[in-house]
Amino acid sequence: MEKLDEILSEIDERKEELLNFALKLISFKTPNPPAKNTLPAQKWLAAEMEKNGMDVEMVDVYPGEPDVVGILRGKGKGKTLAFNGHIDVAEVKEDEKWDFEPFKGFYDEKYLYGRGATDMKGGLASAFFALKVIAESGMELKHNVMMQSVIGEEAGEPGTKRLLEKGYKCDFAIIPEPNSLEVQGQGGVITFWIKIKSPEVYHDAVRHKMIHAGGGVAAANTIEKMCKIIEGMQELERYWGVMKRYPKMSPGANTINPSVIEGGRNPIFIPDECRIWYTAHFLPNEDVDDIKKEITQHVMNVAKADLWLKNHPPEITWGGESLVREKGEIFPSAHIDENNPYVRLLLQTRERVLGKKPEVSIWPSVSDAGWFSKFGIPSAICGPGKIEEAHIINEKVSIKELLDAAKLYAAYILNFNEKSW
């Protein structure tokens, strides 16, 4: 307890250092979109990790766009605790009227301001600072502590996924996304396109032969046929809302939203192609592959009930690895088990440091926590800031929460280190 109290006091005393570190991160312009701009920030962060005794590797996700991994190594073959956060931030549009330059942040008595202050350079800064204070204390670790700064999360890019695929795994991950330092899991998200395509193109003068008996033209208006698919998807969404449940998650939070629709050539043609872009939110205990199967089966069942669609079935294209590059994204869900020993220790540590008895709950957004779950690794979202402050003009984060986060992470590292697991 004496060592913990010493480290918590030190974090308070070095508040300005933490805030200036966060401001330095904010100063790197890493909006996504447009993406492809994170290399200077990642190089700087890698150098800071090396200065603090971490073994550092830069792992390309795309050429010239690396993730950064820093490891504070323990002695022996211990477990590995990871802090994972994304270096990219929400875009800043030209017509947005900020009260200050978004990438020249500042702080006052209560808040730190700037694009990414909440989502999530503030959380990254708190995590790094916790590791820095632990490293400088000279204490001997039994277990490893890893920090992952990843690219692309804002656009569903595979920064975290690529690290896990390449073997940079851990036993437990904390994701410092903005949730007021609650301990949370998440539902999942997948986007997908449904396309209906006619093999023929007709002038609109032929429409009467298509729609009336005896017209002799077995064709279809693909926009009208897509209406049947939309109705079918609404039925599936209602079914999900009534029949599927997850503890501490509002009924009906699992939605299927038609986000974008495209179709037709111009007013003198019968539309021969129609595409619709959906976003599906699913529950924390559901696997993305099962969701894809369920949606596919439902769409095909709707198509089989229509004579034309039965012979011209819709095509489904599932979200890829990037909204920017492929117009699609996937965020797997992250079930959180309060009886998991790592999660239980986080709850206990939070109560000790912040003086509040927490309960696990579900974050309303999505993060890279789901990729850890997909790889069989337990995780928890737990970071400074409010989700309502993410992506907005004049973004800010509470200084108290940044300090509380750094203290919580440092205390968790100490408690994690004491365990034999």
Defining traits:
Aminopeptidase; alpha/beta; Alpha-Beta Plaits; elongated; five-stranded antiparallel β-sheet; six-stranded mixed β-sheet
How does this model look, in words?
By secondary structure, this protein is of the alpha/beta class. The chain is 37% helix and 21% strand. The chain is built from 13 helices and 16 strands. It has helices at residues 2-13, 15-27, 39-51, 121-137, 159-165, 207-211, 222-243, 288-304, 307-311, 323-326, 341-354, 369-374, 399-418; strands spanning 55-62, 65-72, 80-86, 106-107, 111-113, 144-150, 172-175, 183-186, 188-197, 256-263, 273-282, 315-318, 330-331, 360-363, 379-381, 396-398. Strands 1-2-6-3-7-15 form a six-stranded mixed sheet, sandwiched between helices. Strands 9, 10, 11, 12 and 13 form a five-stranded antiparallel sheet that branches. Strands 4-5-16 form a three-stranded antiparallel sheet. It starts with a helix and ends with a helix.
Uncertain segments are none
Instruction: Characterize the overall form.
Output: elongated
Gap from first CA to last CA: 20 Å
Look at the structure and name the CATH superfamily of the largest domain. Zn peptidases
Question: What is the succession of H and E elements?
Answer: HHHEEEEEHEHEEEHHEEHHEHEHEHEEH
The tally of structural domains comes to 2
Question: What is the residue-averaged pLDDT?
Answer: 96
Number of strands: 16
Looking at how many chains there are and whether they match, the oligomeric state comes to single chain
CATH topology of the largest domain: Aminopeptidase
Helix content: 25-40%
Beta-strand percentage? 15-25%
Question: Biggest β-sheet, characterized?
Answer: 6 strands, mixed
* Radius of gyration from the alpha-carbon trace, in angstroms: 25 Å
Number of helices: 13
- CATH class label of the largest domain: Alpha Beta
